[in-house]
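1st attempt posting a full record on here, be nice pls
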Amino acid sequence: MLVKFILPGLVEAKTPRSRPIKYSLFPPLGLATLASFLNDDDEAVLVDDHVQVWQMDDAPDLVVIQVYITSASRSYAIADHYRAKASFVILGGLHVTSLPDEAARHADAIFIGPGEQTFPQFLADFRKGQAQKRYVSGGGRTLAGLPMIRRDLIKRERYLVPNSIVVSRGCPHHCDFCYKDAFFEGGKSFYMQRVDDALAEIDRLPGKHLYFLDDHLFGAKKFARDLFSGMKGMGRVWQAAATIDSILDSDLIERAAEAGLRSLFIGFESLSQHSLASSNKKQNLGRSYGEAIRKMNDLGIMINGSFVFGMDGDSRDVFSQTVDWAVGQGITTATFHIMTPYPGTALYNRMAEGGRMLHHDWNRYDTRQVVFRPKGMTAKELKAGYDQAYRDFYSWTNIFRASFSHDRPKHIAKHLAYSAGWKKFEGLWALAIRSGVLQTMHPVLETILGEVKRREPKSGMLQAKKNEGFFN
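the predicted structure (as tokens):
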């Protein structure tokens, strides 16, 4: 049986070269995980529309398409194409779970929720000619005993961070704007691999650099503590995401630093307690952002801060206030978002009931465009303020200002190297990836990272920004 796994790209990008470099950061691990359930005599092909040119003149027995909201139009077009050629097409992913009836019009079967528990049953049904129309993930979710991810299907040379890894699913928190909350509804919303299995997967990855794509790596304290203990001595340099409360309420951040953590994605989202409360961002309420930042700075951990603009409590001065605060705190990089009510979220339901949604053009639901009617400003002002925030934060003046807010020369140099080296020369990184030069650079970069780790345990050089490939 020939099975084709496809991650579609944004519809408006005609070729991989016309897409932003952020889409070349991480390979599609979800599809590679599903491929691991195939039989040995099955043939699997994995296509990432973001990074490669591929042909649609084939007719696989089975086509598996992962759908995000901004790729929905292209996903449906690909699905319709293969169905017309008599391939059996299944659709899954966040957007399918949010709008199953919409997706079902373009598929022979759809998957609602995470697919690890339901895909094996589908394969058994499909081989017998008895595939169902819908497969819904419910209780009993687990990552224990999963087969090894089919990393052999991934073209490592096409990605800036090929060593991405996921050791947990979901998140213990339930923010109103979170796209993934509905995805894990109906069963466990947060669950982890066995620590030994996670360590074994880490050990199989070449080189030194890792990026944990987990929504909240620190979300289960015992799991995180055991994982970090196991990683000590492995010689890894890595990045991850966590929350303010997990940094302040335990010693996990110190244990992570000892195990090689060099950069952390933090969802600050808003400086307003009222906005945090209205978004159900409880893990940030009453927490000292400054204390958490000082703790990470003392450990030499760089910070990628996430901020959301357009909440109902925001006024036109929220942009300059947020940028000034982030620069003054020495935040290494910032990822700004326009609040986007995704279908299936509590935020979307409130906005839709209030008649505040402007349209349902899913291609524009990318957190860079305004798709709802804001309260404290016009849609045009929200978009302009968002764009200005990026320009201001990454101006040379503010890069230097934030760098010199640190009190140690090594932290100043590290901040300058990353903030300027990545953002200001993003085009060069794109050229390196697309020309194939980056692949030849990987051994050199790994050597540099290893030297940095040996000489200075609290520094790091090459970083990749958490969520740049997904939300910004």
